[in-house]
């Protein structure tokens, strides 16, 4: 099941179904669609749509695939241990010495550990792309120069991307004099983009993460029409937001839990802040020292 869902974009309901099956690695291949629906507290048609999202023509085909013996299936000969990639939280090795670290290294891993493993993989791929001469190193540097040079800096992030836009904006304000976080949609959003442009903005950072809000894509069109250069931080180079970007920075979103994990995109956002600092080191240092002096005078932090 983990292999089937890996890399597939699922809705929250579909992820609940996947989690239900992952929690029952032995029974999953023998449950009816109605039983799965009842256990996951979803409708039976949702189970069918889940199977189709995985590339099957219906739930019976998915169940047959799960029943297939061998490396790609869930069933196993009697007496054999459950493969670690399919083991649940209760699938622990028995009879091993607690001090035997080799046994611990080979112990079955549960779905929560698999989710963390997936984030480690995402971070590893991001690190590879940011190596000297890597495809994303130049893009990050170019994005940093565009953003730090903008007299006003709008930062867009709607729905799931709003917390990341706010987090980025908090730190960016320490090195940039006019950061404007746009985390709410509606008709006022276009007004705020135009106001930022009137204040001298030449570039905008847009954080656009799945499920891609239409309002965010519309805001990119508005910013483009206003003459702003667009830096897009998203989950994939083929994200719909990348189509209008001047610079696209991408880091994979974890999709192994009910809701997305944004570990790699958050790391990339902080790397982008570093690139902004590197693009204007003298100005950045002066603003940081000014902030520290002000914070100390006002006793902002306890230590």
Automatic annotation (TrEMBL):
Signal sequence region: none
Start-end of Polar residues biased regions: 81-94
Gene Ontology molecular function, alphabetical: carbohydrate derivative binding; DNA binding; DNA-binding transcription factor activity
Pfam families: HTH_6
Disordered: annotated span: 65-104
PROSITE patterns to which the protein is assigned, alphabetical: HTH_RPIR (PS51071)
Entry superkingdom: Bacteria
Domain HTH rpiR-type, first and last residues per copy: 1-73
GO-annotated biological processes: carbohydrate derivative metabolic process
PANTHER family named in the record: GLUCOKINASE, RPIR-FAMILY TRANSCRIPTIONAL REGULATOR
Protein name: Transcriptional regulator
Organism field: Rugosimonospora africana
